[in-house]
Structure formats: structure tokens, C-alpha cells
Amino acid sequence: MRIEVYAAHWGNNELAPEVFIDKVLAAGFDGIEMSLPLDAALRGEWTDRIASAGLQLIAAQWETVFHSDFELHRVALAELLENACLARPVLVNTHTGKDFYTPAQNAQLLDLAAAISEKHGVPIVHEIHRSRFSGHPMLLLPYLAQYPALPLTADLSHWCCACESLLEDQPQTLAQVLPLVRHVHARVGHAQGPQVADFRAPEAKTALDAHLAWWDAIVALRRAAGAERMTFTPEFGPAPYLQTLPWTQQPVADAWEQNVAMLQLLRQRYSAE
Question: SUPFAM superfamilies under this entry (predicted)?
Fold first, then answer.
């Protein structure tokens, strides 16, 4: 099984496509995870450049977060997922629903995503993320009774924050969820937030070890299932996601440097398997 590691466009949005792609190639990533423009010409420019560079693409959809009204959210989700699938990515990672929508409303969105996925033959996976339908284990688990094969992106840093723990007291939750993971956002969270200041610091070791154990389990599950690839995107975000100093707002670390360091950690950890 191939382990592929993707570079997050998040935090690099100000860079021209050719500049960002050169940065990704220099770091040694296998591909790029990004939200694609709705404009067909701009989308084509990105996808052509990515393909010409020999990189893979994961399309991300997160813009539905701007639509609190359910009907607007549903319409936007359909448009954004269709647009993402037209790029023929490895998969589409989507921020789906809201934690304040009814179960029936969120189920309608999950059904919509499944229909678009089937139409295009492109996997669509739903990100575990605060404020979405999956923002807390007790929000997500009821949906798994209705959708026992629901494909997920594991960004478990969000659950660390939502549950104010490293999930030590929820092994049964992880046993249900980890087999459904098809993509991982490799960011390290902690009990008080979704992103440690620097995962390489000694004070982050306990949180890092917890995340590595989850990722190890996911890789083992996918290998046992005969999967051809497992995808990771290191996703340490920019300020204000990244902690800053008061008054000056100076970031306490470099998010891109951490993402490259996480790429190297993942390569070292899984390349020999």
C-alpha cells in the first residue's frame, strides 16, 4: 500500500500557482490538497499545472461553512462538490453540514454527497471537524447507524479540543470510527485546542504519541483491507490557528516548516512498512 503525503494549500493562498507548486516539489510532497476555483478556466489552470508537475490532487470543499441557512448550504455543497469532482482528484474532502442542523437535514447532505460521488466515480470523504455534523463523537456516532460505511477524513485534533482530552476514555468511539477513515489530516491537537504550537517540542510529545497511535491503527486497517493507497495531509494552519504572541501577533512557529517536518516523520514512519 502506497503512503501518499499531500501539501495543504491552506496558508499559502497568496502564492501564485507556479510558486506554490515549486514549493511543494522542493519539499518532496506527493500532491496538493486545495479548494479549487469555481471558474472553469482557473480550475483548469491549477489542475493542468499540478498534473504537469507530476503531482496528485485532493480537492477540498470547505466554503459551505459560510452558509448557516440550510437551503443555501445544500445548494452550495452541490455546486462545490460537482466542481471538485470535475477535476478528477484522488478524492474530495468535504466540510459537510452543521452541528446545529437536524439529523434529517445533515442526512440529506450526506445523501447528496453520496449521489455526486457515484455520478462522477470520485470518492467523497467527510472531514471530522468542529461545528460540522461530525464535530463531536456523540454527534457523529448516531449517523453511523444509518451510514455504517460513511467515508471519513480523520482530523482527530478537533475531537481532542471538543472532548477536552486525548480520547483516552473513548476507545469504543475510536473502534467504530477508525475503520471508516480514508484520509488523514496530520495535525496534532491537544486537550485545549486543535493545534499544538510545535509538535516537535517536548511538551507536545504526549499529544503527538496519541495521534501517531491513531494513524498507525488507520494505516494497519487500510493495509488489511487491501487498499492501494493511504493519503495524509499535514495541516498545521497559519495564524490565528497557529498561536501568536499578544500585542505583536507574531506567530510562535512556522506552519509550513511544521508541515514539511510532518511529511518527513510520516515518510520515515511508514516507508519501511
Answer: Xylose isomerase-like (SSF51658)
CA atoms within 13 A on the CB side of 204: 18
CB 155 within 8 A of CB 174: no
Is the pLDDT assigned to residue 72 strictly greater than 80? yes
Q: List phi, psi (to 5°) of 69.
A: -70, 130
Task: Supply the pTM of this predicted model.
Answer: 0.97
Contact 144, 150 (CB under 8 A): yes
The C-alpha cell of 26 is what?
522542493
Angle at alpha carbon of residue 216, lines to 5 and 61, rounded to 5°? 45
Can you name the residues that pair with 181 across neighbouring β-strands? 152
2-270 CATH: 3.20.20.150
Q: Is residue 117 classed as helix, strand or coil in its secondary structure?
A: helix
* Nearest CA among 179, 194, 182, 180 for reference residue 232: 182
pLDDT attached to residue 271: 83
Q: Tell me the torsion sign for CA atoms 267, 33, 231, 171.
A: positive
Terminal-residue alpha carbon distance, the chain: 9
